[in-house]
Structures are given as C-alpha cells and as structure tokens.
Amino acid sequence: MARRVALHDPLLGPLTDDLLTPEVRVYQRLKGHRFSSDDVATAYVAYSARPAAQRVLDLGCGLGSVLLLLAWKLPRAQLCGVEAQAMSFELLQRNVARSGFAERVRVVHGDLREPSRFEPGFDLVTGTPPYFPPEAVLEAEDEQRAFARIEYRGGVEAYVAAGAALLSQDGAFVLCGDARADARVAAAANVAGLQLRARHEIVARAGMTPLFSVWTLSFASGAVQTSTLTLRGESGESTADAARLRAFSGFDALPA
Predict the structure, then answer these.
(1) Of 28, 103, 123, 225, which shows the fewest CB atoms inside 10 Å?
(2) Which domain does 88 fall in, by range?
(3) What are phi and psi of 239, to 5 degrees?
C-alpha cells in the first residue's frame, strides 16, 4: 500500500502522518528515516526492564519513536532525548509538541557523546545506534537516512559509554543494534563497567538469521536472559511475538 502524504513541508519535503500508538501520531519524511520494528522492540524491552522508571533518557532519538512510546507507557516519568541530525531533530520537536507529553519530555539538539549536558542518575537509558561503518555509505543517499544508518557519530561503543556515564547504579541501559555486534557490545560494556543482563534476538521471518538484537545492560551482575522474537512465520504469517509488540503499542483491539 502506498504511503499517503499528509503535507508538503518546505524544509523537510513530503511528510506522512502516522500512528505510533492509538493516541500518539508522528510526522515522518516520506523518503527519509522512518520508525520500524526495531524501535518498537527497543521500547518493549526497555519497558519490561524498568516498568516503574521515573527518569528516562533516549540517546540518538531520531524523530522520537522510542522516546514517545515510553512516554505513553510511563505516564509518571520525566523523559529526555538527544538528537544531533538537523532534520530528525526538527521532526522530533514537532512530534513531542503534538504528543500531549511536552510538559514532561525534554529534547536536546546535540551530540550524545557530550553527556555532561545531562544530570546523571537515569533509571532507564535507551539507544538505537546506526548499524553500519562509515565506508558503507552510498553516494547521494538521503542525509537523514544516512545519519540513522551510518556510524558518523559513533556506534555501539559511543552509546554504551554515554549511557554508562548517565545511568543510575540500579538502572537499566537498553541498546538495539546489528545482531552481529555481540562482541562489540560486550567489549564496550566491559570498558564502561556494565554487565550484560539480557539479549533478545529479533528474527524477521522464521528460519532467517536475526535481523537485530536488543541488549539490556546494568551495573549489577547476574544470569543473562536470552530470548528470540520472531515476527513472521515460515509462510509469512504474523506471529504471537508480533502480536505482543502490537499489543504493547496499543493496537491489540484495533482492526488489522
């Protein structure tokens, strides 16, 4: 189904107006970076890790999908988000302003590698780093999409370092990234003094290799929980795992 353009913005180009939850809508660039299952899975794991979080920080929050999902799920939390890319930050500001959460969601236009702009002690920190090294960039690729995909401002290592500097001693840091980045995440966590507590592999279709992983890190050690979320069966049918993610976003009672 073709995406319907809601408005033509002179700065951002054609925008769609999409449901993030039944009550929260977000503007997205038609041909730019758009939220996907990795954002929903990140918010789902983060909420499961700290369902009573009071202070939440989202690193590199893009147009605000993870940040606003958590604001919707955590009505008593104060949330912060930081985003450096100009077009994504413009969308982020607009989406927060229209969300109904603006009084408790603060957004900062800046680099996540400068954590001194935030007061430490967040009990939940999230991040969805780019998946690819700078040499993977394609010529003439859309700037917003490129910064969401390519590690221009650092990859998992930069996110783990920033998250560790701002996380409370009993907090959880939830990180989403390329499923092949396990060794990088483990090494970065070791440098930052964090421990791996959970790893969730997300499989797009049964029988395929994992599309991405979501890791939960904390300062406390303990057994590592592992799980797999499979979004479609071998014949392409939607799965119970996919239904759980839809229900998390509030769409379980809505028609398909």
Answers:
(1) 103
(2) 7-248
(3) -110, 175
DSSP 112: T
Residue 70 lies in a domain: yes
d(CA 149, CA 3): 22
Written as six digits, the tokens of 56 are 């939440």
CATH of the domain at 89: 3.40.50.150
Cα–Cα distance, 33 to 175 (Å, whole number): 19
Note whether residue 1 is domain-resident.
Answer: no
Total tally of structural domains belonging to the chain: 1
At 87 the pLDDT is 95
| Residue 125 lies inside a defined structural domain of this protein | yes
Tens digit of pLDDT for each residue in 144-192? 988 888 888 889 999 999 999 999 999 999 999 999 999 999 999 999 9
SS3 at position 197: strand
- What is this structure's pTM? 0.94
